[in-house]
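Here is one chain, start to finish.
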Amino acid sequence: MKTERYYGGIFHAFIILSLIVESAKAANVRLRVSPASNITNPSARGSSAGRFTYGGSFTLRNPFPSRPDGAVYLGLGIGDPDKWVGVQLVLTLPDPIGDVFETGLVTIKIHRSLPERFSVAVGQESFISWGDPVERGASSFVVVTKSFRLRDPEQSLFGNMVLTAGLGNGRFLPNNDVITDRGGFNGPFRPFASLKLGLGSNASLIIDWIRNDYYAGVSFVPFSEVPLILLVAVGDVHSPRYGDGIRYLFSFAYGGKIG
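Its structure:
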């Protein structure tokens, strides 16, 4: 089935893409890293010039076949989103165990930081792709992210909140449209949204809404001096029968700076 392999690569690309925003802040080990704000939805925030991130994602169940799956990735930032715009590029390899470089895809996101803790971005999954054609369905999106201070200090329990909302096509279409290819992967745009609630300085609770379904998870930074972010989540919470049940997701991201 076309969508079976499509989600095998693209789905993992955006689980780990959500971690890039936070881990790419780690210019060195002394720069504090924040927990992730999204699970599978894109964020309007992104990495800047010289910041890189690498990591991986693993799920115990794909949306369609009841089998484990995984992916690895490398992300790189260009430009300055505070002064002009930033560009984030992510190379995802959806078959880390088999022929690693036989199939791949590059995602691009152009993002800008705005006053009042707003960020905006536009992007496209599989902007460049090669190999297995069923991994190469492109999805475009526009997204806005806003941070809120709920209490002082902001890094205390429930001290901050991050809201993300956007429109996307392709994998952002409702489940039935994707499964039957109604509208294709370049069909009309549909909304998606994410909510992050801070659980102190090193952890966050995350809820994603996409394709009429929900994802829920916890992200945490296990070591204060190491720019490593972990994510544990479940997918297809609202419609577990879609794809033969709830999915259990695990991801990690490690960031740094070139030069």
